[in-house]
UniProtKB/TrEMBL annotation:
This is TrkA family potassium uptake protein. The keyword Transport applies. Residues 1-127 form the RCK N-terminal domain. InterPro entries: K_uptake_TrkA, NAD(P)-bd_dom_sf, RCK_N, Trk_Ktr_HKT_K-transport. Keywords: Ion transport, Potassium, Potassium transport, Transport. It holds the Pfam family TrkA_N.
Amino acid sequence: MFVLIVGAGRVGAAVAQSMLAQGHDVSVLDEDPLSHERLDAGLASSWEEAGGRFTVGQGIELEALREAGIEDADVFIASTSGDNTNIVIAQVAQRKFQVRTVIARVMDPARATWFAEQGVRTICPTLEAIGMFESAIGEVA
């Protein structure tokens, strides 16, 4: 399976390394060339030697997405630090490039809920934290 991840921060890099270790073809797109270091961290060889791909560019730019391989992607993960960016590029992946599985990290619970209703899988750490806190409070009460 070919996975394209936009955003090579801690989350994107960890997911990319996990997917590569599971035997998937993985391409990462990030605007910061130095974010490549996160992909190399902990590997016995470089990210590319391990079979990964890295492209420097803006996830919001169609040409950068194409260069990173979006036209071949089975899974697209938007994991930049910006909700708006993640929402827009997830919609582009879903609607323009017809990527089968699109996942977006969205920090704002209201946006995450709405976006999930539009058919994009969302991961919202804020909602997960709220759920954990409510569960813990319920156990104490």
